[in-house]
């Protein structure tokens, strides 16, 4: 009895320490998240409402000011068009990679993802060189007879669409590839064994099953496009002023409360879209699966 009591008493501290191990390991991460994420957000919202006292005037100005509304509409338009531009090539790349598999598929997937880690500033300067007057694109179009004289595409909406799509294309490929890779290939074989041609198997079996990955990729690219700053500021014109660019302009003129309010609205929109995506298509699950590849 005494030995059992001592043994039981000896195990209790070990259970207590093991029970605290998880929270102790997570505590540094939580502290960093609170310090670097939660505190700045709270500070931003506080100063958008309490400058110098409680007021919603800056949010009311966002709802009525033509410049703000134009910037918001422009941001949504650019994000939607960039998403559409990425859709078809991203689906084609993901389809090919999912069908290859093996080491070759892994190498090709890596070559697709690696360019995403190149600095957006470097990419923007590269596009400026290609799209400027007498650049590669201009020379090619004039060589094909599509242009009569040298023309610069820098400062146009076309430059913004193309440059943003080139950066965000790998982001759309990953969720699509993850979904296509996990599809049950027996369903495709069953459709083929029943006499369905390849195009019908694709349209009625493969495509519907891959739609969750398509939805996740589109939502992810759309959400990321909403907060873009470097590419539109370097390649776009005055009519391509996105919300992030407008926020930067407000800070340069020391209109901090307006910039805070605009940042808060953009943050709320992005968080709402991400929440909808997580519930409807399991965006978080697809991204974790893509990361594991």
Give structural notes.
With about 290 residues, the chain is mainly α. It has 13 helices and no strands. Helix 1 packs across helix 12, helix 3 packs across helix 7 and helix 9 packs antiparallel against helix 12. About 30% of the residues are buried. The mean pLDDT is about 80.
Could you give a short description of this structure?
This protein is mostly helical and 293 residues long.
Structure keywords:
single chain; 293 residues; mainly alpha
Q: Which secondary structure elements does this structure contain, and how are they paired or packed?
A:
Layout: H1 2-49, H2 57-64, H3 66-100, H4 102-113, H5 120-131, H6 136-143, H7 157-181, H8 185-193, H9 198-226, H10 230-235, H11 243-252, H12 256-281, H13 283-292
């Amino acid at each position: 009895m005494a030995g059992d009591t001592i043994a039981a008493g000896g195990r209790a501290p070990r259970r207590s320490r093991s029970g605290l191990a998880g929270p102790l390991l997570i505590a540094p991460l939580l502290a960093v998240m609170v310090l670097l994420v939660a505190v700045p957000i709270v500070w931003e919202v506080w100063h958008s409402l309490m400058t110098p006292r409680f007021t919603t005037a800056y949010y009311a100005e966002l709802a009525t000011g033509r410049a703000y509304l134009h910037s918001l509409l422009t941001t949504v338009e650019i994000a939607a068009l960039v998403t559409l531009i990425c859709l078809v090539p991203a689906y084609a790349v993901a389809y090919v990679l999912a069908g290859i598999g093996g080491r070759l598929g892994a190498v090709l997937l890596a070559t697709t993802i690696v360019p995403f880690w190149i600095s957006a500033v470097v990419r923007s300067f590269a596009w400026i060189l290609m799209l400027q007057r007498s650049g590669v694109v201009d020379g090619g179009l004039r060589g094909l007879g599509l242009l009569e004289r040298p023309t610069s595409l820098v400062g146009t909406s076309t430059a913004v669409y193309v440059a943003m799509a080139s950066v965000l294309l790998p982001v759309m490929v990953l969720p699509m590839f993850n979904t296509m890779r996990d599809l049950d290939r027996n369903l495709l074989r069953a459709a083929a064994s029943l006499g369905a041609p390849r195009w019908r198997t694709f349209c009625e079996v493969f495509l519907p099953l891959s739609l969750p990955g398509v939805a996740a990729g589109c939502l992810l690219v759309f959400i990321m496009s909403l907060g873009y700053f470097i590419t539109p500021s370097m390649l776009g014109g005055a009519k391509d002023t996105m919300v992030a660019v407008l926020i930067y302009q407000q800070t340069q003129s020391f209109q901090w409360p307006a910039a805070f309010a605009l940042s808060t609205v953009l943050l709320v929109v992005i968080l709402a879209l991400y929440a909808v995506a997580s519930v409807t298509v399991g965006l978080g699950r697809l991204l974790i699966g893509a990361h594991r590849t």
